[in-house]
Design a protein that fits this description.
By secondary structure, this protein is mainly α. Helix content is 50%, strand content 6%. It has 18 helices and six strands. The chain has a three-stranded antiparallel β-sheet. The chain has a three-stranded antiparallel β-sheet with strand order 4-5-6. A hairpin with a 7-residue loop joins β2 (15-21) and β3. α6 (132-142) packs antiparallel against α11 (250-261) and α9 (215-227) packs antiparallel against α14 (316-328). The protein is globular, with a radius of gyration of 23 Å. It binds s-citryldethia Coenzyme A (SDX). S-citryldethia Coenzyme A (SDX) is lined by residues 231, 234, 265-267, 269, 294, 302-310, 358, 360, 363-365.
Length: 428
């Protein structure tokens, strides 16, 4: 709370004062509670670009300075020094775990990596060519049908075990979606392995031969998962909060988040970036024509992997991923020409006044697809990877919402622009 107040005087002589709330970091927020009752007005902020929907202690973003903190820790330090499972603990519980706490948390997550055998049948019910995101949305939503014993959202223990189940099972389900798409046998989790290594063996091993994961690839994937774990009130996280605010169970709420992430303007951008780069390769598009299309207001095409609703500077995650790309492509026998092309496109775009004037920079999706390809993850699985990583962020916000004393069902208003009242023909 600050002692600042904002006065609003309406044109019919009414006036009211509103508190300015101040968080740990970031701009003050005008608390407009009571605006309608005091002055008879709603607010209008399409896309909620300047509207605080909640109070949260999980992640802070400074879009002007390109800063991203998780529970106060800078993303570059977490990417360099932490592990994805440790970041999961940090996001869920607010502090880095002690050695014993981490051992107990890891054991709990390992205890939930398997899924009910019927899930295999469920996934096998999809067409062979179903997009993995379609399978993921459906399967995660269906998980609630297996856990009637723990979907009482008023019970903190039910909320916590649901969080553990989701974090533990997403890699298993993601790998099943991939295997189904390839017509390959599903692989069971191997709890002797770490979180990321276990995912890799479920994705890439087959019963017919031994599998040894590449430690360089495993670390690259670990960093990618850390960089995608959470990102404040983005579209999919806000969707999870809004869905969950009605009392929907955690599996249904996370499925709603997965659906929102699928859009190419959000999590679907990593797949769209590689398509865009391949287009430049294969279809005669050039960097110049691609940039020209992105600037043409008559063309709906946007430069995928560029721009951000919040960052008006470099997305700090893009910088880390670009370096990861640069360091790893040799080790991983990656697509160096595609990385070189991405670099060239980045340089050309950053030098273009259109992008400079609009402060459009590479975002997290611009380079991530190149690394995912180097990890032999197919393009239609890119957004599944994003969803797998972001599940801990989504469920952390869902838990925080349910512990928020100001929690209530979300219900935005509107400016009605339809017909004025009129009678049905013949109505008296
Ligand atoms: C993610 O919110 C999050 O935190 C999301 C995310 C997360 O971790 O959860 O960070 C992950 O979703 C990253 C974004 C991935 N999406 C893409 O890369 C798709 C391409 N980017 C654009 O679609 C766009 O930049 C958005 C959707 C990301 C942001 O859209 P906005 O907020 O509408 O963009 P803006 O208001 O800042 O646009 C300002 C101007 C507009 O032009 P003018 O009307 O001023 O002439 O910039 C233009 C826009 O048309 N513009 C672009 C552009 N992005 C914005 N022009 C060309 N190419 C682009 N990519």
């Amino acid at each position: 709370m600050t002692n600042k107040k904002i006065s609003i005087n309406s044109d019919d002589g009414k006036s009211a004062e509103f508190e300015v709330l101040q968080g740990t970091h970031g701009p003050g927020c005008i608390d407009l509670t009571g605006l309608y009752s005091k002055l008879g007005y709603f607010t209008y902020d399409p896309g909620f670009g300047m509207t605080g929907s909640c109070k949260s202690g999980i992640t802070f973003i400074n879009g002007e300075e390109g800063i991203l903190l998780h529970r106060g820790y800078p993303i570059d330090q977490l990417a360099e020094k932490s592990s994805y499972l440790e970041v999961c603990y940090l996001l869920l519980y607010g502090e880095l775990p002690s050695t014993d706490e981490f051992a107990s948390f890891s054991a709990t997550i390992k205890n939930h990596t398997m899924v009910h055998e019927n899930i295999r049948d469920f996934i096998n019910g999809f067409r062979y060519d179903a997009h993995p995101m379609a399978m993921l949305v459906g399967t995660v939503g269906a998980l609630s049908s297996f856990y009637h014993d723990s979907t009482d959202i008023s019970n903190p223990e039910h909320r916590e075990i649901s969080a553990h189940r989701l974090i533990a099972k997403l890699p298993t389900i993601a790998s099943y979606c991939y295997k189904h798409h390839r017509g390959l046998p599903f692989m069971y989790p191997d709890n002797s392995l770490g979180y990321t290594e276990n995912f890799m063996q479920m994705m890439f091993s087959v019963p017919a031969q031994d599998y040894q994961h590449n430690p360089v690839a495993a670390r690259a994937l670990e960093v990618l998962l850390i960089l995608h774990a959470d990102h404040e009130q983005n579209a999919s996280t806000s969707t999870v909060r809004l869905a969950g605010s009605s009392g929907a169970n955690p599996f249904a709420s996370i499925a709603a988040g997965i659906a929102s992430l699928w859009g190419p303007a959000h999590g679907g951008a990593n797949e769209a970036v590689v398509n865009m780069l391949e287009n430049i390769y294969n279809s005669g598009e050039t960097i110049e024509t691609t940039i020209a299309r992105a600037k043409d207001k008559n063309d709906p095409f946007r430069l995928m992997g560029f721009g951000h609703r919040v960052y008006k500077n470099f997305d700090p995650r893009a910088k880390i991923i670009a370096k990861l790309c640069h360091d790893l492509l040799d080790d991983l026998d990656g697509d160096q020409p595609m990385f070189d092309l991405a670099r060239e496109l980045e340089q050309a775009t950053l030098a273009d006044p259109y992008f400079q004037d609009r402060r459009l920079y590479p975002n997290v999706d611009f380079y991530s697809g190149i690394i995912l390809r180097a990890l032999n993850i197919p393009m239609n699985m890119f957004t599944v990877m994003f969803a797998m990583a972001r599940t801990v962020g989504w469920i952390s916000h869902w838990l925080e919402m349910h512990s928020d004393p100001e929690f209530r069902i979300g219900r935005p208003r509107q400016i009605y622009t339809g017909h004025a009242t009129r009678d049905y023909p013949g109505a008296s």
